[in-house]
Design brief:
- It contains 15 helices and six strands.
- The longest helix is centred in the C-terminal third of the chain and has 27 residues.
Length: about 350
């Protein structure tokens, strides 16, 4: 019996990894092109966008929050990048400024961080529920993107050598050591996030505040700064994802990133994180992103209708939530509050 229990626990905790293996095996059998090197790199470059968003979302969910604005933030950041690449016109001076690509990248990521800061301040300082705050910011960001473009799309963002602003498509099309740049950005983001969560005081504070905010606050954890920080980091991740997506498409439109927030949340959930906060890993989140990405691309390769793709993806998400409920249902009971446990007394009161 104990052997069966251990096997079940292993399968439950490693479900994202095993699901990814099954997906790769099934689609490799159904299509000879699925597991080719070129297709694998193409799928990985698609996953990179969702993966970067999902890493930022993981930080928010570990804190016990949710960020519904990342898709709109991605779209807004892409539009701003396109706007800057097209040149900033100063009518009074009769001058058009074409900023270099590195300036566009910095400003775009800063904008993503600013949107995250707005979310964090609303939630941490003004006590607006995360769902409501980020939902409102989602609509504002999408509306600003539509206003800037008037509903149109910025095309041909490659830049011109004589203007000194070439190189934007480097993020989307270039390779380093045979690996797409977007995938390398995802690897760097994941490594940094994992080090922050496992090797720094901020990571310990994040897990503590997500697990029990009141107890963490009484223990000296700077709960509000941590809460604001995770939303800022989520916004920066959305800005990076917006840059990569716009670079891959060589265009930036105000409707980019619609429903991407749901994909990011799904990747975190499939990776085993608890939506109640305090539980989750970067490794699991990346596996969740690859599960969604490889499943979607596999369905496209074998010619499945986009409607059925939505059905399959939704079924995977529901199954992941059910498995999460099974995994975390046996949580340790909270001891009864006593005078010897002031944290518990305060929480109970």
């Amino acid at each position: 019996m104990s052997g069966d229990f251990e096997l079940g626990r292993l399968l439950l905790e490693g479900r994202a990894f095993f699901a990814l293996i099954v997906i790769v095996l099934v689609f490799s059998i159904l299509s000879p092109y699925y597991l080719s090197v070129s297709n694998f790199l193409t799928m990985a470059s698609h996953v990179a966008i969702f993966g970067i968003l999902a890493v930022g979302m993981l930080l928010v969910i570990l804190n016990g929050g949710i960020d519904l604005s990342v898709g709109s933030t991605l779209g807004l950041c892409g539009v701003i990048a396109g706007f800057l690449m097209q040149g900033v016109t100063f009518s009074a001076l009769g001058y058009v400024l074409y900023p270099p690509v590195w300036v566009v990248v910095v400003l775009t990521c800063a904008l993503g961080g600013f949107v995250g800061l707005v979310n964090g301040v609303l939630i941490a300082r003004f006590k607006v529920p995360a769902f409501v705050a980020t939902l409102g910011v989602m609509y504002v960001a999408r509306g600003v993107a539509l206003l800037i473009t008037n509903g149109l799309t910025y095309n041909d963002l490659g830049g011109k050598a004589e203007l000194g602003n070439t190189g934007f498509n480097w993020l989307g099309f270039n390779h380093l050591f045979g690996i797409p740049i977007g995938v390398l950005v995802l690897v760097v983001v994941a490594i940094v996030a994992n080090l922050v969560l496992t090797r720094t005081a901020f990571g310990r504070w994040l897990y503590a505040s997500g697990g029990n905010e009141r107890a963490a606050e009484l223990s000296g954890v700077p709960v509000k700064p941590v809460q604001i920080s995770v939303y800022v980091l989520s916004g920066v991740c959305a800005g990076m994802a917006g840059l990569i997506l716009s670079s891959q498409l060589t265009s930036a439109g105000p409707t980019a990133g619609i429903s991407y927030e749901l994909t990011a949340i799904a990747a975190v959930v499939i990776g085993g994180a608890a939506l109640t906060g305090g539980r989750g890993t970067v490794r699991g989140t990346l596996l969740g992103a690859f599960v969604i990405g490889f499943l979607s691309d596999g369905l496209v390769i074998i010619g499945i209708s986009s409607y059925w793709q939505t059905v399959f993806t939704g079924a995977v998400i529901v199954l992941a939530v059910l498995l999460n409920a099974v995994q975390y249902r046996r949580r340790p009971k909270t001891p009864r509050p006593t005078k010897d446990h002031p944290t518990l007394v305060s929480k109970a009161s």
